Amino acid sequence: MNFQVIGIAALLIFYGCYFIKMINQHYKGIKTDQIGQGKSGFEKFIEITMKIATYIVPMVEIVSIIFNITHFSGPVRIMGACISFIGVTVFVISVLTMQDSWRAGVSKTDKTELVTRGIYQISRNPAFLGFDLVYIGIVLMFFNWLLFIISIFAMIMFHLQIVNVEEVFLLEIFGDEYLNYKRKVCRYIGRRR
Predict the structure, then answer these.
(1) pTM over 0.90
(2) pLDDT per position as a tens digit, 51-75
(3) Residue 80: which residues within 8 A CB-CB, separation 6 or more?
(4) What is the CATH number of domain 3-30+40-102+113-184?
């Protein structure tokens, strides 16, 4: 199995979806990248640090893929390939479901709807879940300590952004509608009874 081809394909589809959506929204007059915009203090720190981490991770992923760096055997790498493609699928579905409400970072100026349909019925944050799964999958296919550390750091920053920025913002904007949604659907995956 050629893990380099699988890794590159996963990254091309994943980041291709991200940038195609961003370009498509640009042509509609929507500013997708809201990371750090209109924020200050801890919120801004979290979002800017998260953005920097998400720029570094793909660079380390690409180097790891090109040099086919790994310390794991075939079965672990196969599991990584499967996890990364599940992550790509989750991310693409989440972006398509959000339609024009999708943003990178929260926008305090754009009026969007609270999306609770489709994949958002089983995850409040499927795009972040997709990022995490792709990162985990690539780490399993091309394990090295630098890739592992920077991927974990980025995933921690995603979590901090969700908990300290996004959830606070959604509660502020959507109030009881968001609280009811939060009671029914888990942060990453699953529904509550």
Answers:
(1) yes
(2) 999 999 999 999 999 999 899 999 9
(3) 3, 72, 136, 137, 138, 139, 140, 141, 142
(4) 1.20.120.1630
